[in-house]
Amino acid sequence: MYTDTERCVRAVRSKDARFDGWFFTAVLTTGIYCRPSCPVVPPKAENMTFYPSAAACQQAGFRACKRCRPDTSPGSPEWNARADTVARAVRLIQDGVVDREGVPGLAGRLGYSARQIERQLLAELGAGPLALARAQRAQTARLLIETTGLPMADVAFAAGFSSIRAFNDTVREVFALSPSELRARGHRGARGTERATTPGVISLRLPFRAPLTPDNLFGHLAATAVPGVEEWRDGAYRRTLSLPYGHGIVALTPRPDHIACRLSLTDPRDLTLAISSCRRMLDLDADPVAVDEQLRADPQLTPLVDKAPGRRVPRTVDAAEFAVRAVLGQQVSTAAARTHAARLVTAHGEPVEDPEGGLTHLFPAPEALAALDPEALALPRSRRTTLTTLVAALADGTLRLGPDSDWDRAREQLIALPGFGPWTVEVIAMRALGDPDAFLPTDLGMRRAAAGLGLPSTPAALTARAAAWRPWRAYAVQYLWATEDHAINHLPV
Hints:
The chain is of the alpha+beta class. Helices cover 44% and strands 9% of the residues.
């Protein structure tokens, strides 16, 4: 979009927050860059130039605006709506892969050379993987500076910088303030952050594009919560996180204009991945206006969208975990699926301490489940085979599910496993892989909802009708599911 100058100028002049994250405005006369909704008086059109990413602005020598904090904009919805190489690369960079594995590690995960990845990212984002990772390190550093009392040296290495000097230089260059000046801005940080009052806890705000209807989003997560791993407590969804350097506990609370996030991490180097995982789970980078506009074009869906616009797809922080849980939930009730998952957690999950609630374990990794005794599972024999085959494929790397997954390739691999039918494959594609066009025409709840609205209720006919909803069929599923009076569609009380 950033190449459409006239459209970008209109968005900046109207301070349209819907375009935050889609592009960034660099002001030639001041040397700063802003989000489209920046509250300051817009500059003259001839003094504006536009970039597709904060990293591209920084690479061109612009520093972040202190008023609108463009580095904390919602992410571009484009990267979570695509499954091509560039989108997969962006998702991996958001998860901190470049900091942990370098550009060769990023390229290896995607099956390309480092030069090919560099070229593709430059073409679409105006910055290569190192520049994108650097911009993300700067944002992580700012969060830690403003929301914790960590010594600056600890902040630098937690944010992924290789030296104190690189940390200081980057913060000064990007924010036009030294690290100590950023911290001195006040007890309450700049917009988007809030200093935690509990030692070891990082509190921040996760922005999103309005509107957002939280009912089905948090209702689904709470209703399907695995005891010990997830819970709903004091108006917040809480869960444990398995992370590269340790583990964490997150509490997410829906607010009118943001999601309040409280993170407790055993190692602050995991902050970047923890934040990106939570954003992905809550689908916070979606563009609800574009989604709802297309779905409203179907007269049968119009009343559903108008009643509760901005529904999100409840996703997951761990694709492998969700795949295991999807198998456990085949042809059983929500309560039974939670019971089966809780038994696996108790037997194979790593214990954790939770001073604030009832969380007790991390969900077991595939490697931990690979040694389980199938006879110990209270499941039909065919389901045991399905689960053990899945776990073995995940543990040995034959099947890789995550932000770098090719959605079509993952579907092919899943459907080839015993016991995997279209419903299981599509629910994994929708909630674990993040495909916004995943569709469940065989789902009983979907078919009941369709029939009640006068839509075709047979899978083939419903699929044909849903062609007009593409590429947002996963969101249509949420609107259709929400017609039923089920716990997954309501915020817990």
